Amino acid sequence: MAENETLECITEHERILQEIESTDTACVGPTLRSIYDDQPNAHKRFMEKLDARIRNHDREIEKMCNFHHQGFVDAITELLKVRADAEKLMGQVTDTNRRLQEAGREVTAQTEEVIRCRIQQRNMATTVEKLQLCIPVLEMYSKLKEQLESKRYYAALKTMEQLEKVYIPRVSHYRFCQIMAENLPRLREEIKEISMSDLKDFLESIRKHSDKVGETAMRQAQQHRTFNSAVAKQASTGHYTKPMYSLNGRTHTHNGLMIEEDSGEEEEADEEVLTAQDLVDFSPVYRCLHIYTVLGDRETFENYYRKQRKKQARLVLQPQANMHETVEGYRRYFNQIVGFFVVEDHILHATQGLVTRAFTDELWNMALSKIIAVLRTHSSYCEDPDLVLELKNLIVIFADTLQGYGFPVNRLFDLLFEVRDQYNETLLKKWALVFREIFELDNYSPIPVETEEEYKHVVSRFPFHDTEIEKQDFPKKLPMSQSVPQIYTQVKEFIYASLKFSESLHRSSTEIDDMLRKSTNLLLTRTLSSCLQNLIKKPHIGLTELVQIIINTTHLEQACRYLEEFITNITNVSPETVHTTRLYGLSTFKDARHAAEGEIYTKLNQKIDEFIQLADYEWGMAESDGRASGYLMDLINFLRSTFQVFTHLPNNNNDHASMSGKVAQTACMSACKHLSTSLMQMLLDTELKQISMGAIQQFNLDVIQCELFASSEPVPGFQGDTLQLAFIDLRQLLDLFMVWDWSTYLADYGQPTSKYLRVNPATALALLEKVYRGMKDTSKKNNIFSQFRKNDRDKQKLIETVVKQLRSLVNGMSS
């Protein structure tokens, strides 16, 4: 067992030694550690083994050294011999080198000179080569500076582009080129700023020139209209030669300022047509557009330009506060707007994409809405029809001008219908003043005609035809007053004034005819009717004037058909056309005539009231005076003279004029009824407490005079005693008291055949009570004779009985 362990240990030690010999000394540590980790005291045996191995190697080294020692000695001996020869050779080499250096010193100097010259020559060639590369760069940069100084910015940008892409890359490693390259972006920004500044100056300039551009465009549009009208006339006569004209250098209407033609003024026939380019320098816009396009920032420029033009559009569309006061204010406003859109139209066609049709349409729609709102507002302030008419002409020229540039203007022509209404309103106000002045200056008496010339003059102004009057000798009188031909003439003048607005509206004859008739209807039914109504209501217009007004309205009514013929002749539209509007003058004059008739009745009644107020009855008189009261006789005389005036009313076979006879009859009947009512109210006045029979008798005399007046037929045409029936209530009431026929009244009350059918119990009771109180007062004074007192007492008892019966009748009626 021990032997086996010893053999294993020896074998292990042998392996370890071999590993140490074959392994790097840095890795010996783990191997040696394994010796100490095996068995106790193993390292001692290993050390012994190691010592034996070292001794073995020492013996081998010694053997090898002994074997090579003689050869080493021989080599050393030979080396010592060679050293002497080497020293000798060194001396020879040194001497040869010295002599060679001395001999080649001059050659070396010349060689260095040649080398230096060759280097210089090479440097010069390189310099020339590099300069040839740099000179074009410098020349281009110099050219760039010159272009910037001469403000040729577009060319400068092109030069910069060449520098960057072609020249500078060739010599980019030079510092000056780097400086140039660094300056180019700054120069571009400067060019952008300068071009933008030029654009701003252009925008400011175009604001100032828009007025002139618009004025030129509108003037040429107006000349174009005049030219077209002349061409139409020439074509209608068969003498027409096609003109040669220029339109902004193009043959269509989208980029010019209208054609030029000979307007008959002192201008030369071949005068050059002014265009937007003639009045405005557009080069800043083109230049700036090209610059921004080259710089790749076109979108920024387009957005800026459009934004600024929108702002300018809003400024242009702002009117002056007093624009409505003069036509020049409107003209300046329109000129600026036209100038603005003429410039935009030119930019639209001269540049590609700077502004688009959609952008200009958007601007125009915005402007159109603002223009319409402004014109609506300011035209409403205009009170002068001439100013409104000039405004209409300006709107038409304005619309035609912009229509020539392709802008839709239908809404402007629609606006003209509103302006037409405003124009008609101003005309109506103006003619209202004219009518009032005519009515104020009229003497309301028939027109005296002394000679044939005067008659023809009147007839030429007013369509008057009367065979009977024409047969009369001069001097003679025409039934109407001076205001009638004046009113008729002014209505025709109004039609002419209204027609002026319809010109150039591109409307058919039928539409113009309809406009004229409607405006004339407004004049007749509103303005003239109002003036007539106000005239009739004026305090100073008396019965005579009212009668003359009725005569005048009758003749004006008859003249309405001539006004219709007048309008037909102007418009050449047959009155039989389906939709032709009729004149409403007939109703106007009928209404005025009815108002005059009503005013006659009113004034007549007022005059009767004035006479009634003069009545001074002595209600306690014992006996009547035996004659009618003075105030009543004066009133009857007034009525007689008044009704004679009605004989002047026209009473011919005309359907309208034949109504005048009824006016006189109605006035007479109204006067009689009002007189009867006033007398009845006088008897029944609550402030009148007692009435004597003598006063009743006096009142009866007055009523008799009224009945005599009624029976005398103050106005012809009444049948039988129709007029006397106005006093029937008074007559029956007075007869009842005069006859004292109470038994009959009470017995026949309610019967259709009653003698006192028109006597109301309440009226009889009120008057009877007043008479009863009067009799009481009289009996107190007249108590001298007893038989009188007895009669009075009997009468009083009768009255008391009648009063009771009347009260029962009144109570029965009320229940």
Detailed description of the structure:
With 815 residues, this protein is mainly α. Among the domains are: 15-67; 174-230 and 277-407, no CATH class. The protein has helices at 2-22, 28-37, 42-149, 153-167, 175-237, 276-279, 283-294, 298-316, 327-350, 357-379, 385-404, 410-441, 452-461, 467-471, 483-502, 509-537, 543-558, 560-571, 585-613, 630-645, 660-683, 693-711, 728-739, 742-748, 761-781, 786-814, and strands spanning 447-449, 476-478. It has a two-stranded antiparallel ribbon with strand order 1-2. It is elongated. Residues 236-271, 651-659 and 784-788 have low confidence and may be disordered. One of its GO terms (cellular component) is exocyst.
SSE order, one letter for each helix or strand: HHHHHHHHHHHHEHHEHHHHHHHHHHHH
Structural class: mainly alpha
State which percent range the strand residues make up.
under 5%
Portion in helices: over 70%
Low-confidence residue ranges? 236-271, 651-659, 784-788
What is the rounded distance between the termini? Answer: 172 Å
Number of strands: 2
Major beta-sheet overview: 2 strands, antiparallel
| Number of separate helices | 26
Keywords:
two-stranded antiparallel ribbon, 815 residues
Brief rundown of the structure:
The protein has 26 helices and two strands. Among the domains are: 15-67; 174-230 and 277-407, no CATH class.
